[in-house]
Design goal:
By secondary structure, this protein is an alpha/beta fold. Helix 4 links the parallel strand 9 and strand 10. A six-stranded parallel sheet has the order 2-1-4-6-7-8. Strands 10-9-11-12-13 form a five-stranded parallel sheet, sandwiched between helices. Helix 3 packs across helix 11 and helix 11 runs antiparallel to helix 12. It folds into two domains: 202 residues, 3-Layer(aba) Sandwich (Rossmann fold), CATH 3.40.50; 129 residues, Rossmann fold. Helices cover 41% and strands 16% of the residues.
Length: 352
């Protein structure tokens, strides 16, 4: 099968390991296909495909951005979406989901919101995962008692920043952003916090690194994936005193900590790798009546246009607002102004 991945290319290797031919187009320009500017249209992107290669299916990977690939609804092949950040963007994701034939939703509680038309669409829970080629144990000394790796921003995540400052006064905590494999491998305990009841990538990545994970208790089907005190240890949001007690306990009970970490790694490798998720997507494609799905999407063009009108209108307003916040003539201002114009143009084209 020929698969075109748009956006986050994290599943490319897994699809290739399953025997499929994969091309990618990424917003950072590092993919197999290159387009000069984003947002782009699928008409423009499809012209960049190699000769003798055309996709049997398209998979859009959520990058937590505005729609960057416009016109997916008009394509004559299955169009799938793997959405990750529903907890951040559900207010417009609901309408945007009308574009797709099958939607895979990383956060289970959000699944019902990703079906606009049950007569032609499917939405399935597909949790996040690890990449064992990257997320793996390293032979490094445990120089950190406790570490946290994640986005630290007082403006966008003020609650997390306050929480980390409070903890830093009570436990030996290393705080980092960006590269995590080395930090996790150097840590006796990896601490994780969730943005909005979400099961984030750090859960799977930390376990795959063989780290002992202390993570927030959340919903979204977490208990169907991992078990408390067997694969990891859970704490309750807001209970700082109890969290400090757990840190102290597991720092002083090394054998128990190591056993849980080993069992956590076994659990994540057994069912929650990129290969498992790629296989689930392929299985969904092979079990569905894809021709009927594409035909039903084509016949629903008017209803999809109504949904996209709302999405594109919101995006045009958002980029107009953003453009006013940047210095006149700056690269950021120019990008926002162009993006607003693209969404306004595509919104008008919906009704032609």
């Amino acid at each position: 099968m020929n698969i075109l991945i748009l956006g986050f290319p994290i599943l490319k290797l897994a699809f290739e390991q399953l025997g499929h031919s994969v091309k990618t187009c990424t917003t950072d320009g590092a993919g197999d296909l290159w387009v000069p500017e984003f947002p782009t249209t699928m008409d423009q992107l499809m012209k960049t495909l190699p000769l003798q290669w055309s996709p049997d299916a398209i998979v859009l990977m959520d990058e937590s951005t505005a729609p960057m690939y416009l016109g997916l609804e008009r394509l004559e092949m299955p169009v799938l979406w793997y959405t990750i950040d529903s907890h951040l963007h559900l207010h417009w994701h609901r309408a945007y989901s009308a574009v797709f034939d099958i939607v895979f939703v990383a956060q289970r509680d959000a699944v019902p919101h990703y079906v606009c038309d049950p007569s032609r669409q499917e939405a399935r829970w597909l949790p996040l995962f690890c990449c064992p080629e990257r997320d793996r144990p390293l032979a490094l000394p445990k120089t950190h008692d406790v570490s946290f790796v994640g986005t630290i921003d007082d403006r966008w995540k003020p609650e997390r920043s306050r929480w980390l400052r409070t903890l830093s006064r009570r436990i030996p905590l290393v705080i980092a952003s960006g590269e995590y494999v080395t930090v996790f491998n150097r840590s006796k305990i990896v601490l994780n916090e969730c943005a909005a009841n979400d099961i984030n990538f750090r859960v799977f990545e930390a376990l795959a690194c063989g780290s002992f994970l202390l993570t927030e208790r959340v919903g979204n089907g977490f208990d169907d994936l991992f078990r408390d005190r067997e694969h990891l240890v859970l704490y309750e949001k807001g209970e700082v005193d109890r969290l400090v007690e757990l840190v102290d306990y597991y720092l002083h009970h090394e054998s128990e900590r190591i056993r849980i970490a080993q069992q956590g790694r076994e659990a994540v490798l057994a069912a929650h790798t990129a290969l498992h998720r790629a296989q689930s997507i392929v299985t969904a494609l092979r079990s569905a009546d894809l021709d009927a799905m594409v035909r039903a999407r084509t016949e629903s063009a008017d209803r999809i246009a109504v949904a996209l009108d709302a999405v594109y209108g919101f995006m045009a307003q958002m980029y107009a607002w953003a453009a006013r916040r940047y210095e006149e003539g700056s690269v950021q201002q120019a990008f926002c102004a162009r993006a607003r114009a693209v969404f306004e143009h595509e919104r008008t084209a919906l009704h032609v």
